User: What shape does this take?
Amino acid sequence: MAKNFIWGPDGRLPHIEDHTKRKLEVLKSYLDIYFDTVVRNPAQDRLNITLVDGFSGGGAYADGAETRSGSPLVLLSAVEQAAVRLNERREKPLKINARFIFVDDEFEHVAALRRELKSRDYAEDDPRITIYHGTFVDHLPAILQKITKTQIKGRSIFFLDQFGYSDVPMSAIRTIFNSLDRSEVVLNFAIDSLLNYLQDASAELELYRQFGVDARFISDWKQRKDEKMGRALTQRALMAHIHANSGAKFFTPFMLWSRTDNRWMMLAHLSQHQAARDKMLGVHWQKQNSFTHAGPGGLFNLGYDARLKESCDSFFSFSEIDRTKLSRELINALPSEIHRIMHGGQLEIGRLLAEIGNRTAGTNEDIFEVLSELAQARELEVLSSIGRPKRAGTKISIKDRLILPSQPTLFFSKKF
Ligand SMILES: C[S@@+](CC[C@H](N)C(=O)[O-])C[C@H]1O[C@@H](n2cnc3c(N)ncnc32)[C@H](O)[C@@H]1O
Assistant: This one.
């Protein structure tokens, strides 16, 4: 086992690595945005949610002379802080009714986690916290049963921080999404470890086949000429397979560079709802994700795209320069996309977001701004949810609808 993740009986904490810090920061930022946006209705007085940490570890790390929270404590404190923050602005108090399920298959890690919780004044029999010793997959049926028994919509976040890529089968993720409507998964996946150790024989193994790795995939990977581009394209192909085989509608990769191992790790966010993906995308921009996918940020497709081999310089990252580029790309790409989905009638903005959500690095706000520009340029007309025309320049919302302008315009007449 990697020595940076060993919690022994002597109580010594493992030293935290930079990429682990970053991973936990991403998790924390995501949870903050999640809670800040999930309860929109001021009349709502309760939020039921279960947070599952399927690979919880021992709860804390050493960072020089300081102690740093591990993922179980990040989950607990994110909920405690959200409860305070959200109630500051509310007349009707909101209760976050959260349950926590922590799983680890190392007995010593479970013991360390219990010690850590106790030292932070969580009672051993705290009814909100369940700790399982054993593998995540073995405990998954009991976890799902626990959630569905009391939560109709199954609002839950699964943080699945495996070491490599073999402890969370795609079938487990499909089971989560099939069982719980409002579930989200944040999956750690050692994407470069998988690629670096691929052998011809891997194509025969179900472990690899579940990620779409077959003989053709392996031979394309081995024959790569340009290391950076070949790796980026193969990572992309793998992401597309993981997305397709996970049963999730939305997929957002967040790349973390491990200096110790000299390789990329992927933290993927998987969800069934566009709003959830939009929240994760907000974290990408905030944290300047080092996911440099090949190609434009405006509209793209994950998955292998041979044409990108010719455009080695077109890597996209989440910088301010890219944000400007992204707006320009969206201005050019959206009209034809809207026309394609619209089929001549009206198009709800919510549907547009759901259609293009996986294929853009733009957040909903970025897309609203571009739509607003297109409306001001009379390329589009915007109707409110009750069908009233909106003045160009007014704020656009997810419930609005788009129609083509009565007069043909530059974009639409040029393209169709
Ligand atoms: C990367 S560490 C987790 C770190 C922790 N999530 C954090 O951020 O503080 C992975 C943990 O998963 C545990 N583990 C390994 N295989 C497992 C499995 N199949 N099911 C559950 N836990 C497992 C290990 O014992 C280890 O504590």
Summary: The chain has two domains: 3-316, 320-415.
